[in-house]
Each structure stands twice: as structure tokens, then as C-alpha cells.
Design goal:
146 residues; globular; single chain; 5-stranded mixed beta sheet; mainly beta
Length: 146
């Protein structure tokens, strides 16, 4: 299960919990052929999360691929907050949340970030910043050897 960070230092962690009761069966993640590597880099800690499948689930549930642990008093990340999809050599972000998923550039103030329309896939480019609640991630795509 996730450990909750302090409110002063939001962070994310990759969580696994074999006792999780809410299945993600509607979010079928299948392997895919790729010549690029994809990452999300948490901007407060520089921790890197490899996006290793075609459907990468981000949220507060322990069974998410990227489990964002947050104190209950600041809970703004939904259980199933967003999806990062890889298809046809491109990456797409899809908001599934109540409080929104935002897309911007490095150095951009929060007020200038674009709020993604809910349930709509929006293409994301390497070097863009994904934001939800207090959490910011730099999306990176690197050419592979294949």
C-alpha cells in the first residue's frame, strides 16, 4: 500500500498491493512493440517512472501503475485520475478525474496550463509537463535501439 507523504512535500510512489479489491479490468493493458522509451519524471523529487505498457494508469489507488500518495486533507487526485496511452508511435493523455488533469510546458505558471477535456485523448509531446493537484511530472520520450 502507499505511504502518505507530509502535506509540505507531495510525492508519488509506485505502489503494489496484492490485496487490492478494485480491479482495473476495464483498463486492459496489453504489451506493444515500440522503438522509444517513455518516462514520467516527478519534478519535486526527480524520481523517474518507466511507462512500460500501452495503457498506464495514474491515480490514488494502490493498483494504479503510478500511485500518487497524498494526505487525506489535500486529496485532489482521483482514484483513477488519468490514463497515459501509447499507440502508433505517439503518446496520449486522457483525464478521468473530478479535479482535472493539466498540460503545460517547463517554466509555465500553473494559471497558463491547459485543462484537458474529460474523457478525451490529447497528444502529449516529450518535454511537456503534466499536472494534477500539487503534482507535476515531466513527460519524456527517448529513441530506442530497435
Amino acid at each position: 500500500a502507499c505511504e502518505l507523504p507530509s502535506a509540505e512535500a507531495p510525492e508519488a510512489s509506485v505502489c503494489t498491493d496484492s490485496a487490492a479489491t478494485m480491479p482495473l479490468s476495464s483498463y486492459c493493458a496489453q504489451p506493444y512493440g515500440r522503438s522509444r522509451s517513455y518516462y514520467l519524471v516527478e519534478m519535486n523529487t526527480n524520481r523517474s517512472f518507466v511507462i512500460s505498457k500501452a495503457l498506464f494508469v495514474i491515480g490514488a489507488l494502490p493498483e494504479c501503475d503510478l500511485c500518487v500518495a497524498q494526505p487525506p486533507e489535500t486529496a485532489a487526485v482521483s482514484r483513477l485520475h488519468a490514463l497515459l496511452l501509447l499507440k502508433n508511435g505517439k503518446a496520449y493523455l486522457k483525464d478521468q478525474s473530478t479535479n482535472g488533469t493539466f498540460l503545460g510546458e517547463l517554466g509555465m505558471p500553473d494559471s497558463d496550463f491547459y485543462r484537458l477535456p474529460k474523457d478525451t485523448e490529447v497528444e502529449i509531446r516529450s518535454g511537456q509537463v503534466v499536472r494534477f493537484a500539487l503534482f507535476r511530472y515531466l513527460f519524456m520520450a527517448e529513441e530506442g535501439d530497435s
